[in-house]
Design goal:
Layout: H1 15-49, H2 56-86, H3 92-109, H4 115-130, H5 138-149, H6 157-168, H7 173-183, H8 189-210
Helix pairs in contact: 1-2, 2-3, 3-4, 3-8, 4-6, 4-8, 6-7
Length: 211
């Protein structure tokens, strides 16, 4: 679904209601598609556990795939809920960054936070801030990042940019080099992201202790 340039333009008045509906329709489509995949995977798990002989490796693989799909569903539901609650025509890229920060904080405050989920969200936020082109459909960008990266095995934005440009094969070397510089592509990048996640958890726990 084409969302034109609303991804990078601030909207005012009643227009944002229509734009929000378009974004929500895209997210609902992802939720429905993902739910079908969850059901299919659960069906395969049921069959696999009754196979003779039992192939434990296949069961483990399918169980992990189900967890991946459930985390994706959690992300899509959270984005859609926050969209309906908080989107009032802001620049959509900025709105998504703030929303992801909020999701990270809520996850960190949960009784059993998924560290890998928090790590993925941190990568996703960085990718959203640095990679998409002006006017690019940001919901489609999120879908692409989720699909190629996988939440359970998060791909740093630097690697995703390389994969994306290799796959698309359409962007000039100059533009690629500029983006690469913006991403700060160096060997310390992933270590820094881990430090950020640990700091977010520390802050969240401190907030919880004060409540």
């Amino acid at each position: 679904m084409a969302l034109s340039n609303v991804s990078v333009a601030k909207t005012t008045g009643e227009n944002y209601v229509r734009i929000r509906a378009n974004y929500s329709k895209s997210l609902e489509g992802l939720i429905e598609q993902n739910q079908r995949e969850i059901k299919s995977t659960e069906s395969l798990i049921k069959k696999a556990v009754h196979e003779k002989p039992l192939i434990e490796g296949r069961v483990k693989y399918l169980t992990r795939e189900r967890k991946e799909l459930l985390l994706r569903q959690r992300l899509y539901y959270s984005l859609n809920t926050k969209l309906h609650q908080n989107y009032k025509g802001q620049i959509f890229r900025d709105f998504l960054s703030l929303t992801i920060d909020n999701i990270i904080e809520l996850e960190a405050l949960s009784s059993q936070p998924e560290i890998v989920y928090i790590k993925f969200l941190s990568y996703l936020k960085e990718a959203l801030q640095t990679i998409p082109e002006p006017g690019e459909n940001l919901i489609a960008f999120i879908e692409g990042y989720v699909t190629r990266s996988h939440i359970l095995n998060p791909m740093p934005p630097q690697k995703y940019l390389i994969l994306r440009e290799y796959t698309n094969g359409a962007e000039s070397t100059t533009a690629y080099d500029h983006k690469k510089a913006k991403l700060g592509d160096n060997i310390d990048a992933e270590l820094k992201s881990i430090d950020v996640i640990e700091e977010q958890l520390r802050i969240a726990r401190a907030k919880r202790a004060l409540n």
